[in-house]
Amino acid sequence: MPEQSEHPSIKRFRERPAASLNQSTDTLDAQEVREIVLKAGADDVGFVEVDRGELATEREDILRFFPPTKSLISFVLRMNREPIRNPARSVANVEFHQSGERVNEIAHRAVAQLEAKGIRAVNPAMGFPMEMVNVGAGKIWIVSHKTVAVAAGLGHMGIHRNVIHPKFGNFILLGTVLVDAKISAYQRPLDYNPCVECKLCVAACPVGAIGSDGAFNFSACYTHNYREFIGGFTNWVEQIADSRNAADYRRRVTDPESASMWQSLSFGANYKSAYCMAVCPAGDEVIAPFLTERSQYLQDVVRPLQNREETVYVVPKSDAEEYVVRRFPHKHVKRVGNSLNRLRTITSFLSGLPLTFQRNQSKGLAATYHFIFTGTEERRATVTIRDQELEVSEGQCGKADIVVTADSQTWLGFLAKERNLVWAVLRRRIRIKGSPKLLLAFGKCFPS
Q: How far apart are CA 254 and CA 79, in angstroms?
């Protein structure tokens, strides 16, 4: 065999000028990088250093995914507004999917341009695919595009939890590129929030996920709007498995629901509503009709979504179920599961409590819960529910009204409805010190 040093590729590498082998990646020119991303198709661009305080909660995950990261490029792509506002949600979903593909293409082109200059860069997906190996145990996304966009000065979160760009409003999709280089200029967060707090998102949401006081019911939004994504798909598969025969399946799932799931599996998962985005009037390019012809804006944009007859998916005995029946009696309520109880770690259980908490179900409850988890995952935590608010703390804080000591795996099995509580108590895998009624009241606050 010839010596490795005689290999043509190795010989050509060694013949390159020294300058080309030591391209400086110390600092990239901000204007040059901005032009690269804009030419790739973005409508606005911002830069943020990985050490920025606003990224503190994301930094560890970012560096685990791409350790050389020094800077993040955040960019927005403007979407067409009228398709998203249309009551025919197939039209809106075409816009979401086409724009999402473009975001990934923009990030891909930007990374290719940087790579050609000898700069290492990575473009995580705009949405899916994500790291499904982490379902039930942690974050499935690599980078929180919203957090990065806010830090890079591209907008702020409205009360509907969408980023609102000062010019384009919330009719945008976000992308991020991680870069192994510093950038000569970084942006700071906007000094004002483009959200005008009109509360139209509150009025349009079919499940009451957005409170007029700014509260957000994640579970309600996730269960309905994302019915044909992860949690809803899992629930649908389980209904197939539980059905005795085809007739039993049709009693559980209507033909339109089966067809809609097929469509999502074939063409890309579809959002059931996203009405909060559709009605939002914020942003310099968007706000004029709302300010000049408000009654007409309500008639043209908000009312068609409110009046739309549709199936609304809710968790049984949740705040969302009560809200739909009271606020939109012409819509059809369907009780489903959402897989949010499929947790694999106690850490996920504790961090997920604020996401599944139903504050209206907690009316009249004022209690402090001490949890002591043993076995494969030892943990101590305090959960306080008072005045329809939830607080989760590490360790044992304050005087407990009830103490729950549980084997961690047994508790997770109980949450997933795979273990019986009475069996667990009799076997002393779960022990309760205090009134069992308080544990029942706790469960009522977290239906799934």
A: 33
DSSP run (H or E) holding 439: helix 436-444
pLDDT, one tens digit per residue, over 185-214 is 999 999 999 999 999 999 999 999 999 999
Contacts of 230 (CB under 8 A, 6+ apart): 135, 339
Domain that holds residue 248: 200-335
Where a domain ends, among 278, 309, 335? 335
DSSP-derived 3-state class of residue 267: helix
Distance CA 272, CA 257 (A): 11
pTM of the model: 0.91
The three-point CA angle 346-53-115 to 5° equals: 95
Query: From CA 119, how far away is CA 110, in angstroms rounded?
Result: 11
Distance CA 123, CA 128 (A): 12
**SS in 3 state form for 347-369?**
HHHHHHHHHHCCHHHHCCCCEEE
Could you say which of 128, 153, 183 is where a domain stops? 183
Same domain, 12 and 151: yes
Examine the domain organization and report whether 30 and 160 are in the same domain: yes
DSSP 195-250: -----HHHHH-TT--B-TTS-B-HHHHHHHHTTTSHHHHHHHHHHHHH-SSHHHHH
